[in-house]
Amino acid sequence: MSRVSFVNGMYCDYKLASVHIEDRGYQFADGVYEVFAVINSKLIDYDGHINRLYKSLKEIKLTSPLAKESYLFHIKNLVKKNYINNGLIYLQVTRGVSKRDFKFPKNVKPSVVIIANSIPKDEYEKKFSRGIKVKTTQDLRWKRVDIKTLNLLPPVLAKQIAVENKCDEAWLIDDKGFITEGSSSNAWILKNNTLITRPVSNSILNGITRTSLIKSLKLKKLKIKERPFNLKDIKTADEAFITSATQFVMPVIRVDNIKIGNGKVGKNAELFKNSYMEAVQLK
């Protein structure tokens, strides 16, 4: 079966999909994106993701070429056309195609690309059951990582450092020695029955999964503290986690050479995962 993608108003075969060589996303990373999870054919946290897309567009002074309901229509179409039960939808909006010039072009229509991918149903559960390992590295990103832009070279390099150290994710460390977030996730530790994660600011992306998890756990009266944490905190943590649209809630069993707890998935991991799944109405 051929995969189907959406490019600038048209559905096309994935292998034939293309954009112009002078698309500003390609030349300047002048655009934004979102990733939507699909579980049991259901779009997860759609409102949060689409609202963040519009926020990102506003921050880079780019008017959306489509209405919110149009994005939803095309995303649902791709889920059906690609027979996706479990998978991911990648949505990208750039400033469009124009002669290469740093200043904004005039009278140019933004480009929209939507890609659909299926993921084996048990892939997440297998990784969850064994937990993941994390490598720390310096945070080299720009000062507005709260905008979900295409400027992803620093996270790419960080992720590669993790891979080269046989780890699944990188946690980024700021100039003061505190963890900001993961290369493609938000970072958490559990210490003395308190779940700790960095507060929202320009230095992290306010994860939609992060937000849903916090809301769900507060309803369960779990103590949550939004504050920076460092390697010293990690050494004394009982458990650790990442959250993202692709990993949902994922336990961390090691950070660098620091074994978290007993080096195995902790007792609260299942609780936090189930709480998130309840929040997005999958349980």
Indicate the multimeric state.
Answer: single chain
For the record, the CATH architecture of the largest domain stands as Alpha-Beta Barrel
Q: Considering the protein shown, what is the CATH homologous superfamily of the largest domain?
A: D-amino Acid Aminotransferase, subunit A, domain 2
- The SS-based structural class is alpha+beta
Evaluate the radius of gyration: 19 Å
List the helices and strands and how they pair.
Elements: E1 4-7, E2 10-13, H1 24-28, E3 31-39, E4 42-43, H2 46-59, H3 68-81, E5 87-94, E6 111-118, H4 123-130, E7 132-138, H5 153-164, E8 169-173, E9 179-182, E10 186-191, E11 194-197, H6 208-219, E12 223-226, H7 231-235, E13 239-244, E14 248-255, E15 258-259, H8 269-279
Parallel strand pairs: 7-8, 7-14, 11-12
Antiparallel strand pairs: 1-2, 1-6, 3-4, 3-5, 5-6, 8-9, 10-11, 10-13, 13-14, 14-15
Helix pairs in contact: 6-8
Can you characterise this structure?
- This protein is α+β, with helices and mostly antiparallel strands and 283 residues long.
- The chain folds into 2 domains: 4-120, 2-Layer Sandwich (D-amino Acid Aminotransferase, Chain A, domain 1); 125-279, Alpha-Beta Barrel (D-amino Acid Aminotransferase, Chain A, domain 2).
- The chain is built from 8 helices and 15 strands.
- Strands 7, 8, 9, 10, 11, 12, 13, 14 and 15 form a 9-stranded mixed beta sheet that branches. It has a 6-stranded antiparallel beta sheet with strand order 2-1-6-5-3-4.
- The longest helix is centred in the N-terminal third of the chain and has 14 residues, at 46-59.
